[in-house]
């Protein structure tokens, strides 16, 4: 019984509930009118920030499955936000934002920034530290997941 209480009220549980709530809020207030889901905008923003990113890097950086990224990229390519370029010997396809995709990401990014400012109004100035801590947690969880996959594959 104690374990269930710890899991239900633990830091990671609260973090997951918070991110789910924020994602739903942004999808309702900004992205619905743009006919886009958070995962699609997130991938587009990532590709805009790092042109020539390979598909596998998008998978790794977003923590999204390869199959889901394929679906997301199909939407972004169909909407002419992203173009795929065939990789050279042994390298996967690279992704580049189109001018339409860059303009869209910039415009919608400003709307999301407006929502971020509303949500974070009154939060102490330590938000930058929180961002660094959350980035560390995300990187650590990706590293641990990769180690678990390697151990599972070796078994």
Automatic annotation (TrEMBL):
Domain HTH marR-type, residue spans: 35-91
Organism: Asanoa siamensis
Descriptive protein name: HTH marR-type domain-containing protein
Top-level taxonomic group: Bacteria
SUPFAM superfamilies: Winged helix' DNA-binding domain
